């Protein structure tokens, strides 16, 4: 039976999964750090990153600063609750635009996040993430436009609309 507490817990975890994408797309490192518990571990594969959870945010945001644009979307979120612990699987699609020898290229990466969560002192946070890259590609693209109101920082119009500040989380 689904209780109000179960629904609330699922929504809180879902929001944290969404905040991860927002943090790396807006290069908002404090927001990204806020989803992890202090002793969390991130495993994005031996060829990319294995270490403290917050460290993967630093690495990804650092890499994204050298791209022209990037966007992450999360889908297919499944969450299993067990009291103050939970497991989840979510699908992430990331599109990144880079220049390679003066040619605009689009990188696409399809990944699943297999996460272990816990509620500590009333707050849900990530304990462990295993990122499973299912496939990826890179190809030349022809941009449709160069104009965008979006920004990859805290001046993005969405921050004013949402009044989202990492220190309030």
From TrEMBL:
Q: Residue ranges of the SnoaL-like domain?
A: 6-129
Q: Which Gene3D superfamilies match?
A: 3.10.450.50
Q: Superkingdom of this entry's organism?
A: Bacteria
Any Pfam family from its record, for instance, is SnoaL_4
Identify this protein by name.
Answer: Nuclear transport factor 2 family protein
Origin organism is Pseudomaricurvus hydrocarbonicus
């Amino acid at each position: 039976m689904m209780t109000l507490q179960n629904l609330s817990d699922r929504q809180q975890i879902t929001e944290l999964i969404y905040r991860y994408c927002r943090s790396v797309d807006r290069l908002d490192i404090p927001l990204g750090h806020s989803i992890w518990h202090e002793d969390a571990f991130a495993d994005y594969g031996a060829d990319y990153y294995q270490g403290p959870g917050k460290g993967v945010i630093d690495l990804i945001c650092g890499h994204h600063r050298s791209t022209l644009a990037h966007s992450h979307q999360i889908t297919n979120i499944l969450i299993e609750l067990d009291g103050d612990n939970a497991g989840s699987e979510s699908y992430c699609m990331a599109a990144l635009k880079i220049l390679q020898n003066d040619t605009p290229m689009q990188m696409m990466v399809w990944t699943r996040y297999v996460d272990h969560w816990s509620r500590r002192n009333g707050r849900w946070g990530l304990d462990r993430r295993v990122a499973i890259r299912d496939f990826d590609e890179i190809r030349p693209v022809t941009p449709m436009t160069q104009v965008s109101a979006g920004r990859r920082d805290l001046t993005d119009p969405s921050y004013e609309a949402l009044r989202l500040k990492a220190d309030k989380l």
